[in-house]
Input
Amino acid sequence: MQDINRSRSRVRMFRHFSVSSAFATLLIAFSGTVSHAADMLGVYEENQDCAEERVLKKVSKQIDYQGRHVPGVPQVDILDYYAIHQNDFIPEAHKRPIARRYCQASAALSNGETRTVWYLIEYEQGFAGVVGDNVEACMQGFDEWNVYDEACRVVRSGVGRN
Output
């Protein structure tokens, strides 16, 4: 009788261990996934890419270039970014082979002004389409030649595009 109780105890312990380890495995497997949020227009991924330092450096570099090379654009430095958020995410799909993330931030400028910056991250579209991601940025009032259309429309959001 005592041997039977020991056997049952071992079976219970094994079942408990199996369930616990299966749960832990699932938890680990899904902990690296990106969360999704729904809005009225669809589902987009939420993550911190908009606030990554490497992305913001590319944004600053583009805005600095415009200030130094485009007549009529003030030469200012971006001192800091705040209120950074994602406006839209368009995942890679059959008709859209490039995943795009649309971001917005407020930029504190060296002349004391604050301006809105919109930027687009195109995944895996860096140098020769291989190295890194491409970032396109437009600051309110800095697109004198309408490269990004009126009021930076091209980098504001991808909603309604194919």
The first strand starts at residue 36 and ends at 39. Helices lie at 2-31, 53-69, 153-156.
